Amino acid sequence: MPGYVPTNAASSGVKLDKKTLKSIAARSDRPGLIYIAQWLTFLAATGTLVWATLGTLWMWPAMLLHGIFLTVPAYSFSHETAHGTAFRSRWLNEAVLWVTSLLYMEEPLHRRYTHTNHHTHTWWVGKDSQMPFDTPMGFGGWLAEITGTALLRFHMQVFLHLAAGRYTSTMKMVTPEREFSKMTRNARIMLLIYALIAAAPFFGIWWVVWFLVIPRILGAPVMLLFTLIQHVELQENSPSILESTRSFRSNWLAEFLYMKMNNHVEHHLYPQVPFHALPKLAEAVQDQLPAPDPGFFKTNLEVMSVVLRRSLGRPTKAATIRQAPHMITEGGPVERIAQRTM
Questions:
Q1: Which of 3, 82, 8 is nearest to 245 (CA)?
Q2: Which residues contact 33 (CB under 8 A, 6 or more apart)?
Q3: Does 158 map to a domain?
Q4: Domain hosting residue 101, numbered range
Q5: Does residue 172 belong to any structural domain of this protein?
Q6: What's the pLDDT score for residue 1?
Q7: Considering the domain boundaries, does residue 157 fall inside one?
Q8: The predicted structure's pLDDT at residue 3
Q9: Other CB atoms within 10 Å distance of the CB of residue 232
């Protein structure tokens, strides 16, 4: 597209002096290692709850809680390590990327390169390889997104393509050719692990069901509600991250689960900044950014209300969250602007 520039702070008109940015973006192993210790502590506590309630109805809320602490941080950590910013040590970053991508269920290098493309072409129709839903979003699309069925189908297709060595045009567009053999190897190993997990109950090994499989399924909608509000109802085809991306207010628990990615505008402006420094970055550029939207629950309830009204042909103006002007209508037929790319 003529005049197109990569989406970042420069394209958005946001400025931060180099000395301050360098200080904020400094990498260290310590915050990531602390996060791992905290994550494992939470998983031990919620796993104990599952074990203590097995055989009772209380096991289901226990597995949901365990699944939230399993699934949301797995997504968040795989995202941070895909950027290479979770740790200063490259080997540690790559090891955690592999394990968390296994839990998130996406081949790690595919995750890295499609996400790099997403940052370069944030919410640009035909360019962004990580647009997970059609826009404007309707209620059917919302259901497919938050249940995880759409994402699981996409990830399984990616695994099968990679395992068979049949690389799609999108893969070829975003991935260095030297990485394809590694991606194929990773996909085959991961599919074998998933097959062993699926077969485990047939050999009397049920702990993987109670502590991994069902919690992963139950926790997925919460994970996807976090990711949904990153860009939904915002502007396609804009060079400005301020128009295409949403930050939202958060409490300590959501910040932990999401690795402070509630500062999502800030993350897209300066993706080289590690997760633990995002609040400091937000403070440094706050005068140049729109105010964050409400917290996790209120923003998601508002989105659900908007997409439901859109599907019913009703007015779609949200009361408390930012929307692109063309997302606000008085009702009637909806013309699709972008088709999902994942």
A1: 8
A2: 87
A3: yes
A4: 26-221
A5: yes
A6: 45
A7: yes
A8: 54
A9: 24
Total domains in the chain come to 1
**Other C-beta atoms within 10 Å of 54: how many?**
14
Give the pTM. Answer: 0.95
CB-based contacts of 252, cutoff 8 Å, min separation 6 = none
- State how far Cα 336 lies from the chain centre: 23
Question: What residues of the chain score a pLDDT lower than 70?
Answer: 1-4
Give domain status of residue 328, yes or no: no
Which residues make Cβ contacts (< 8 Å) with residue 193, sequence separation at least 6? 102
pLDDT of residue 100: 98
**Amino acid found at 143:** L
The terminus-to-terminus CA distance of the chain in angstroms comes to: 22
Q: Is 310 exposed, middle or buried (0-12, 13-18, 19+ CB in 10 A)?
A: buried
Residue 249 backbone phi and psi in degrees, to 5: -70, 155
Q: What is the pLDDT of residues 211-231, one digit of tens each?
A: 999 999 999 999 999 999 999
Side chain identity at residue 175, one-letter code:
T
